[in-house]
Design goal:
By secondary structure, the chain is mainly α. The chain has helices at residues 5-20, 23-38, 47-62, 70-84, 100-112, 114-126. The protein has one domain.
Length: 130
């Protein structure tokens, strides 16, 4: 099954834009996704990227990090909305294969935002004591 990422993110964009307006809702989504992602062995290959994504969102929401575009935050938020939904393209309840689409969406976001994540990682490393 091939995922049409552009179509998927177009569909999720309105929800992500609405969440973007409410920092509390995004923080709840981050908390929910962190619990899910770090408790699933499936996501261990993306541990570094997930840590960067969560850090980026938290630092952006707190106003500590501003070198990120709104559209990138919305893309990350849209991906998290998709990933926390247990009834996505391949329901997560299907043991063994249910997270394949989730990993694919995560890989797509990491690839699309590689430069953004690299810049954030460099900033974070240079501001470790901030």
């Amino acid at each position: 099954m091939k995922i049409n990422y552009i179509k998927l993110f177009r569909r999720l964009n309105p929800v992500a834009r609405e969440l973007f307006k409410d920092k509390n809702k995004i923080n709840k989504l981050i908390d929910e996704y962190e619990k899910m992602a770090f408790n699933k062995k499936t996501f261990t290959d993306f541990a570094k990227e997930l840590t960067l994504i969560f850090g980026l969102l938290k630092d952006f929401l707190s106003g500590t990090y501003k070198n990120v575009k709104k559209k990138d935050i919305i893309m990350i938020t849209a991906a998290m909305v998709y990933l926390v939904n247990p009834m996505d393209l391949v329901p997560d309840l299907l043991l063994g294969i249910g997270f394949i689409d989730d990993l694919s969406v995560l890989a797509y976001v990491v690839k699309k935002l590689k430069n953004v994540l690299d810049d954030y990682e460099e900033w974070k490393n240079n501001n470790i004591f901030v």
